[in-house]
Amino acid sequence: MSNPCWPKTILMVDPDYFDVTYAINEHMKDEFGQLQKIDHLLAQKQWNGLKQCYENLGAKVIVKKSNPCFPDMVFCANPFFTYLDSHRKLKVIFSKMNNTERSGEVDLWRSWFGEKGIEGISISGQFEGMGDALWEYESGRLFGGHGFRSKKETYQEVSHLAGVTPILLTLVDERFYHLDTCFSPLNKNVALYYPPAFDQLSNKILHDHFDHLIELTEPEAMNFAANCHCLDGKNVLIQSGDYTFTEKLNILGFELHYLDTSEFIKAGGSIFCLKHALFL
After folding, report:
1. What is the per-residue pLDDT for 4?
2. Contact, 18 vs 38, CB < 8 A?
């Protein structure tokens, strides 16, 4: 039985205008230095498959319309951060995006939440929402990545607003520019991570916080295995691949659901980036 500490409403943005029209991360150019070409029909099929998987697992999926001005809007983990206040009421912190190409997305989300009467506040420091600030929902810990998109000092503001002290982790590899590209807390005891994405101190911090810290190989990390999502403490939605850790997760009681998000990986995102889990 799933634990109510996990949010079971999944917010997604349709991929109608998804494309690679600029390069703001290491994945958006091919081996020849050209912008990645997107197969739009395949991207739609892959997105549909992800949505269907969530629904099959009992999640409620809410879909927001995309906007032609923002080809990365499909990655809705980034423009805002959500938490529950002391009365278990949903609150929103709107991001301050690092790249101007995506900054306009925040205003669209501000309007969307406002229409629903959900309180939100804009943050003053550089911060990219739940791309860098990851909840470990079972025990209520918050892990905060910084180094490329979110600033370390901004987490003081996040802490004040959300009432939780983030566990800070320093990112050192530009290929893994968000915390959700190289780290995934599956429950209070188990996490996936790619050690070279972090500095030495951050690796030690992670080892101190999980009984089972499962290392990814470089090919697994580059296949965005860490950009998975554990929906309820058991079911893990993960990018398709031949992984060395599969048996370990099975022994620990997890059930893996493999999904192809290869077209979205060309833009630097996969399953975790393509959704925002909400307590609604």
Report:
1. 61
2. yes
Q: Which of 160, 67, 142 has the alpha carbon at shortest distance from 106? A: 67
Can you tell me the distance from the alpha carbon of 112 to that of 65, in angstroms, rounded to the nearest whole number?
Answer: 10
Active-site residue (options: 146, 182, 273, 276): 273
- CA angle 229/235/239 to nearest 5° reads 45
Per-residue DSSP letter, 15: -
Question: Residues 36, 29: contact at Cβ < 8 Å?
Answer: yes
Residue 121: how many other CB atoms lie within 10 Å? 12
Instruction: Using DSSP, state whether 202 is helix, strand or coil.
Output: helix
From 27, 146, 178, 257, the catalytic residue: 178
Whole-number Cα distances in Å, 97 to 29, 102, 125: 21, 7, 9
Structure tokens that stand for 62 in this block: 């809410």
All structural domains of the chain: 9-278 (3.75.10.10)
pLDDT tens-place string over residues 23-38? 999 999 999 999 999 9
In this structure, are residues 168 and 87 in contact, taking their beta carbons and an 8 Å threshold? no
- The model's pTM: 0.97
The question of whether 178 is a catalytic residue gets the answer yes
Whether the Cβ atoms of residue 158 and residue 134 lie closer than 8 Å to each other: no
Q: How far is Cα 249 from Cα 254, in angstroms, rounded to an integer?
A: 5
Q: Which residue is it, tokens 């005891």?
A: 189
Q: Contact 164/140 with Cβ under 8 angstroms?
A: yes
